Every structure is written in C-alpha cells, then in structure tokens.
What does this fold into?
Amino acid sequence: RSIRISGGTGFVGRALCGALRQVGYKVFVVSRTPEGPDMMTWSDVRRHGLPTNCKAVVNTAGENIFNVKKKWTEDFQQEVITSRLYTTSVLAKAINGAEKKPEAFVCMSGVGYYKPSQTAEYTEESPGGDFDFLSELSTNWEKCSELKPEAKEVRRVIIRSGIVLGRQGGVIRDMYFPFYFGVGGPVGSGQQFFPWIHINDIVGLILFAIENNKVKGVLNGVAPQAVTNREFATALGKAMWRPSLFPLPKFVLNVIFSPERAKIMTEGQKVIPKRALEYGFTYDYPDIDSACRACAHLTYTE
Ligand code: NDP
It folds into this structure.
C-alpha cells in the first residue's frame, strides 16, 4: 500500500519517509519542487486526487517559522499561515473526493495551541487555540483537516508536536555549534517549560497513528518527561561533554525573531502526552538525557 506525504523533503518528513519505506510502504512525496518518480506537485494532487491503493495521507508541510533569513513581516506571516492551511485543505479535499478512502489522515500541528504558563499542565482536552498568532494558527490549521461526512470512516489524527530534537534539523542543528564551542546555555532564565520530542518518536507516533486503527483525534506529540529550557540545555551540554553556562538573553532572540515567534523558545508550556500513553505508544527516548545523548552522538537512524 502507498502513503502520500507532503513536506516529505523536510526534517520530520524525510525521517518519516525513511521509516515508512523500511516497514515496506511505497511512499509518494507531495512537494513544491518534485524531483523523481516518487514525487508529485500540489496541482497533481488537486487534479488527480488519490489513487485507490492509498493507505494514509500525512501532512508535514509548512514554512519554517524559525527561518532566520526571513523577517517577521506581514508577508512572511501570511506564508507561514498559507503553507499550512492550503496544503492541509488540498489533502482534505483529495480525501473527500477519493472513491476509495485512505484509512488515516495524519496532520501536524503544534503545542503553541496551549497558552505558555509556569503552572498549568495541558492534556489534549485542555483549552487553547485562541489567544495569539501561534495558537490561532494551530486552530485554523487543524480545522482545515476536517473531512466531509462521506469520509467519516477516515481516521483523522492531529499531532500537536513539541520541539522536535534530531541532529539533522530543527533546534538541535541551530544549537549544536554554540554548544560544540562551549558557549551554549539556556534561553533567558531557563525556567520556562520546553515541550520536546525526539525525531524517532515523532516519526514513531505518526507510524503508530497510521497503523493502529483505534487511534483518532488529537495527540500531544511530546515526550512523557516534561523539562524546563535549563534542564534541556544541561542535558545537551552533558551529552556533548560541554558546559551549558552561557544563557542566551531573551532580548537577543526577540530582536532576531521578533517576540511573537521567539515565544516558542522564550516561553513554554507543560504538555502531557496523555492520549499517546493511553493508547500504549512506547517511546524510544522518553527522557531528555537519552534523547540528547542520541542527538549528540548520532546513535539513532534518521
Ligand atoms: P521543515 O521546515 O523541514 O519543512 C517541511 C516541508 O514543508 C518542507 O520540506 C517543504 O517541502 C514544505 N514547505 C516549506 N515551506 C512551504 C511553503 N511556503 N508552502 C508549502 N510547503 C512548504 O519542517 P519540519 O519537518 O521541521 O516540521 C514539519 C511540520 O511539523 C511543520 O508543519 C512544522 O510546523 C511542524 N512542527 C515542527 C516542529 C519542529 O520542531 N520541527 C515542532 C512543531 C510542529 P517542499 O519544499 O518539498 O514543498
């Protein structure tokens, strides 16, 4: 059976494609710049829909919010929104129109849905999604994945992901060299929560959602161990045999990224993966020390 993945050229998508191929799926990537027979454009999907042997559709596309080269302008914000809403809507429409429906539609979202707090604990039932740019983005993104009643047999799974830790992308790629040269440390006071998940586990959770026919609805895509930003920096320093003493002042991130998006690092929320644990999902890296060791030494496969 085949799987359609948008964003399959990205950090999470690449690792996911590898894992799916390893367990025997035929993977097709939807991309703005397809290269090769296993890739297709968005207009291909709009025009031709889904083939009958499509087992699942996964959306991991989205303009990188932390793109340092892009200023936080109205235009860029619009790109961040459109790249998520448009891609999700095209896939939802293809599923609605498919003669033979896929079993699952798995969509990424973010823990930015929940309001940053030093005291609150958030499960999937907790309120959120309506207080700032990132939370409203998550709400609208998730809404675009809604399917018509005729597609009600398709399991829709939304993964509200924490910060994904892996050597080949995301925050670790950005922080690796400061830590390597011994000048790494927490962001600001480091007291803010740092909702995280190792790349193998976010990939594992998506695979679990595709294959386990009981899984549907929202899953918090975070590790079971909640840590603060300082605890994360300490774990990464330890794993790399480097100090983690040099805090990155909050105002520096605010200047580089603007407060609205720097928030992802300067503020945080304590997120509990209640439903993933209830479903019996097992993590390769449930604790921050083992995840950081894997990122430092590349002992995992991406
Ligand atoms: P990447 O930044 O690696 O990008 C994923 C893919 O999205 C790209 O390879 C690209 O595919 C596609 N894309 C980028 N910009 C656009 C655009 N303007 N329009 C359409 N498609 C675009 O993302 P990650 O793999 O890190 O993350 C995957 C998803 O998970 C994203 O939606 C992200 O917001 C979300 N997420 C990620 C977290 C993380 O820590 N990495 C945390 C929480 C959520 P192509 O060039 O082939 O079109």
